[in-house]
Design goal:
alpha+beta, Ribosomal Protein L25, Chain P, RNA Polymerase Alpha Subunit, Chain A, domain 2, elongated, disordered C terminus
Length: about 220
């Protein structure tokens, strides 16, 4: 998975975020274990060009004065009114140290149980894991084609790449094929009550009809 590359510049202490944004720049911070936070800025055009390609697992290279920093985008702050990007957070992991990250799950295929009315529930779509930066993958594929109604894939069933340890219980459900929604007890009782009411009313209608039929000709009903 190739790195996305951004050229960055140091941000002076007196350079306010609002002024940078007016100058078509995006303020940001670099942080990580064993290093002091570093305030930087990027060209807005570069950020917008690549932003829709960046996930939490996307490796990023930041170039500054001939040096390179390798990390990940951990946060993007948007303006509440305009929805424009106004700040970015870049995390630089320490070499040889594990980090916590969410890896997207990609469900492959259509469960066999759908043909029989099964309903799919995707319980976990981003798996929290602990791993070394070098072992991070863009996504983890999960084949669901053979699942029938009632089948469940749990965390312990996932085929995880070497070096990746999940941070959730291994018995946690990830993907489920459920049976079609059945009536609740309340719905069944309500339907039964309506049916009983109809049965009670029906003989009265029939009986009334018989009385009307038995009125002799020439006599008017009082």
């Amino acid at each position: 998975m190739p790195d996305l590359i951004f050229s960055i510049s140091n941000r002076g202490k007196n350079e306010k975020a609002k002024n940078l944004i007016k100058q078509e720049k995006i303020p940001a911070v670099i942080y990580g274990p064993g290093r002091e936070n570093m305030d930087i800025m990027l060209e807005k055009s570069d950020v917008l060009k690549h932003l829709n390609k960046i996930a939490e697992t996307t490796p990023i290279t930041l170039k500054l004065d001939g040096k390179e920093l390798h990390g990940f985008l951990k946060g993007a702050q948007r303006d509440k009114v305009t929805d424009n990007i106004i700040h970015l957070d870049f995390y630089i992991p320490a070499e040889g140290h594990k980090m916590e990250i969410h890896i997207p799950l990609t469900f492959v295929g259509e469960p066999a149980g759908i043909e029989h009315g099964g309903v799919v529930q995707e319980i976990i779509t981003d798996l929290p894991v602990q791993t070394l930066p070098k072992d991070i993958v863009e996504t983890i594929e999960v084949n669901v084609e053979e699942l029938e109604i009632g089948d469940v894939i749990r965390v312990k069933d996932l085929d995880l790449p070497e070096g990746i340890r999940p941070l959730v219980d291994e018995d946690r459900a990830v993907f489920v094929v459920e049976s079609p929604r059945s009536m609740t007890i309340e719905e069944e009782e309500e339907l039964l009550a309506e049916a009983e009411e109809e049965e009670e009313m029906e003989p009265e209608v029939i009986e009334k009809g018989k009385e009307e039929e038995e009125i002799p000709e020439g006599e008017e009903e009082e």
